[in-house]
Amino acid sequence: MSLKPLVWSIAGSDNRAGAGLQADLLTGHDFEVSVSTVVSAVTAQNSSGVSAVDAVSLDTLSAQLESLAIEQTPKAIKIGMLANAEQLRFVADYLASLKQRCDVFVVWDPVMRASSGDSLAGESLAASAKALLHVVDLVTPNAGELSLLSGMSVNDGASLKAACQAMLAQGCTAVLAKGGHWNLDGEALDYYLDAQQELLISSPRLDTAHSHGTGCTLASAIAATRAKDYPIEDALILAKAYVNQGLRLAEAQGEGTGSVAHAGWPTNRADFPRIESAHSKIGQWFGIDNNWPALAPFASCDTLNLGIYPVVDSLEWIERLLELGVKTLQLRIKDKRDAEVEADIKAAIELGHKHQARLFINDYWRLAIQHGAYGVHLGQEDLLETDLNAIADAGLRLGVSTHGYFELLRAVQIRPSYIALGHIFPTTTKDMPSLPQGLARLQRYADLVREYPLVAIGGIDLARAPSVAQTGVGSIAVVRAVTEADDPALALEQLESALCHSHENGNPSTGNGLDSRFRGNDGIARGNEPVCHSPDLACHSHENGNPPTGSGLDSRFRGNDGVARGNDKSQREEALCPKD
Ligand SMILES: Cc1ncc(COP(=O)(O)OP(=O)(O)O)c(N)n1
Ligand SMILES: Cc1nc(C(=O)O)sc1CCOP(=O)(O)O
Ligand SMILES: [Mg+2]
């Protein structure tokens, strides 16, 4: 039994190892999943073209599938080249029955032609494709394949959208029409459509001839990330970033075109795509139908380090926290009419100003503007229903919730005042539709978006605060860790101290005591700023003679031997979070 999520690749062997099964294995390795392979055909090819395609028999195909299924069913399957219509129908039947036995995500890259231009499996496949379309969760054709599969000509945004709609009508759940061949304003565009949404993601077109294996790599990256439970939007973003990175690093091979590189988990912001809104030129050309805002930047919080950030639901709590010296806090009252909350919101805003604190109002953005709040906090759904320009024009700060790569990139595009990253650990405070992110993902998000104040939220308590702070976030938002503490003042002091100590001790990966978020991509320090945020609470235990322990863990959580004991409940819940 594989400990990593398992992906099957049903595809052809590419003996030059740039595409097909070989590319899928490399991609799976980079995304830290296990890949098992089912060979559909053996091809002979090099950088000048394909010289042989030898399809395996249905018996051999079946034997490979059965031998794998007996041991372990996969979380995702990537289908690449199928060599003939019989194979296609066989795989369609097999998947229909497998899907009755297990929950598996299937992505089909309908390879009909190699990037060298050689036909691999022939146009006859298109006729049999319908059976397979019914069992795949996502099909990833390029413009030519989309045209063949849909039976429609594809020559502009409108015809591409119509062809994708025709594909859904044929029974497939979602289509990603790859735009490597489109060149609009120098952008390479991918268009995604399912029954709920359409997305247009774009990246500057990378002019390289060395693109062999991009289609296989994109589809297997989607399979790998879906196997790791990333939502489809995040899988699309990660896969495109991975291919962009691979194209940027691709090198010539032999006489002709080289292959896309497989260079590890994408971490370079420049490789990550843009999510187009209906307002952008490209969005308009495509006729994208969404109401995502395009905006000027919001006012700054004047620091990357917002410190311990309590989120509370009453004026009484706001008053109490301000008196304790808290400098970043939020009033989060849920599901009441404006008239019911206005008096408390107004009073909280006045108190916030009196204490020179950064008080954010959750959800009630009109009242926040009306009464001159320091800032507003909004979730992703809220963003679509809010007049963000009114918030920006009034000079209020804006904090935005995110729960993964897609939402993070979308948040960055509206240039908010801070970005919240949640939920890191399981929480009982709020019903979350998404899965907990865990520390490893938090680290990746924090490394990707260094120019914004970052706030980690969700299930964070004193035991977890040091490891959260080690990721480089400048703030930790908490509800229960303060509101359910026996002594909220002590809890705040200890949390603030844990955050400060982790920052003072530096990020272990940088080794020189400087917070990694103050570095550029080149690792060079870009300047630093004071890391203790709440003058009244700052690093008390340190100043009072309780020096940093060296690991950032509060002494309450160590045994006599100094070894961290954690807290049992925290550790149990932590086991639920993804470790990737
Ligand atoms: C600091 C911070 N981060 C995230 C949230 C969640 O906001 P949202 O997604 O709008 O959900 P609700 O809080 O409105 O339920 C937050 N409030 N604060
Ligand atoms: C309000 C809220 N928003 C979250 C998000 O991830 O967007 S998690 C969360 C609740 C955080 O509460 P606690 O500190 O008690 O776990
Ligand atoms: Mg909200």
What are the SSEs and their pairings?
Blueprint: E1 6-14, H1 20-30, E2 34-46, E3 49-55, H2 58-71, E4 76-79, H3 85-101, E5 105-108, H4 124-133, E6 138-139, H5 143-150, H6 157-169, E7 174-184, E8 187-194, E9 198-204, H7 214-227, H8 232-248, E10 274-275, H9 281-286, E11 307-312, H10 315-323, E12 328-331, H11 338-354, E13 358-362, H12 365-370, E14 375-378, H13 380-384, H14 388-393, E15 397-402, H15 405-413, E16 418-421, H16 438-448, E17 454-457, H17 465-469, E18 475-478, H18 480-483, H19 488-504, H20 540-543, H21 568-574
Parallel strand pairs: 1-2, 1-4, 4-5, 5-6, 11-12, 11-18, 12-13, 13-14, 14-15, 15-16, 16-17, 17-18
Antiparallel strand pairs: 2-3, 7-8, 8-9, 9-10
Helix pairs in contact: 1-7, 3-4, 5-6, 7-8, 10-11
Characterization of the model:
It is built from 21 helices and 18 strands. It has 580 residues and is α/β, with parallel strands linked by helices. The chain has 2 domains: 6-180 and 210-276, UDP-N-acetylmuramoyl-L-alanine:D-glutamate ligase (3-Layer(aba) Sandwich), CATH 3.40.1190.20; 307-509 and 552-572, Aldolase class I (TIM Barrel, Alpha-Beta Barrel), CATH 3.20.20.70. Strands 11-12-13-14-15-16-17-18 form an 8-stranded parallel β-barrel, surrounded by 5 helices. Strands 3-2-1-4-5-6 form a 6-stranded mixed beta sheet. Helix 3 (85-101) packs parallel to helix 4, helix 5 (143-150) packs across helix 6 (157-169) and helix 10 packs parallel to helix 11 (338-354). The longest helix has 17 residues, at 85-101. The site of the ligand Cc1nc(C(=O)O)sc1CCOP(=O)(O)O has 15 residues, from helix 18.
